[in-house]
Amino acid sequence: MKRKRRTSSDIVEETKRSTMLSDRDLESIRHWIMNMKRKSKNKLRLKYTVIGSGKTRIVYDLENGYVVKVALSKKGLTSNQKELHLYNRCSRRLRKHLCPVIEYGNGWIIMKKISRIEKLTEEYEKKLPRLRKKFLKEGIEARSLRSKNLAISSDNRIIVIDYGSFRYDD
Ligand SMILES: Nc1ncnc2c1ncn2[C@@H]1O[C@H](COP(=O)(O)OP(=O)(O)OP(=O)(O)O)[C@@H](O)[C@H]1O
Ligand SMILES: [Mg+2]
């Protein structure tokens, strides 16, 4: 029998629980997301160290080689969804440039931990237009390719760690 293709909604279904986050963590995030608009009164308290934060998401180090990104706003929720969809739907040649998504739930996404680049050297700056073109060829506009959103793999490939602002037809 032919296996049904896994869709991102299957993944959402499968990861209502998490292999990495405890029920307590999930409950904190759920509470946070539900009350996001009143966030000043409702601090998100997770026991992990914050490894980074952007305009729309806060990122915690799970200290097992993975990070969890939690939405700070509606835009953060969209960014998480976009990353999940794109990672699961794009071609293999593009996926090589995207930080792997491992699990996903309401308001959170777990990704592989990859150290971002401190400063974009000339060598990598030169590689960016080619990378943009590679995505465009498949109808994806790779936006925000800045050093804080990028990492370099051990074999010198550019890896995007924040592709929540990429534009593509769903
Ligand atoms: N996979 C990862 N591994 C290690 N650190 C990460 C990872 N993803 C994100 N970070 C860190 O967290 C920061 C914020 O994450 P991210 O860029 O995804 O959030 P954002 O709110 O979408 O950002 P922006 O302000 O660019 O829209 C990054 O700049 C980086 O320092
Ligand atoms: Mg970012």
Describe the structure.
- With 170 residues, this protein is an alpha+beta fold.
- The protein has a domain at 8-112: Phosphorylase Kinase, domain 1 (2-Layer Sandwich).
- It contains five helices and seven strands, in the order H-H-E-E-E-H-H-E-E-H-E-E.
- A five-stranded antiparallel beta sheet has the order 1-2-3-5-4. It has a two-stranded antiparallel sheet with strand order 6-7.
- Strand 6 (150-152) and strand 7 (158-160) form a beta hairpin.
- The model has no long low-confidence stretch (mean pLDDT 89).
- Magnesium ion (MG) binds at residues 54, 148-149, 162.
Features:
single chain; 170 residues; alpha+beta; Phosphorylase Kinase, domain 1; five-stranded antiparallel sheet; 5 helices; 7 strands; globular; binds adenosine-5'-triphosphate; binds magnesium ion; Kinase-like_dom_sf; Serine/threonine protein kinase
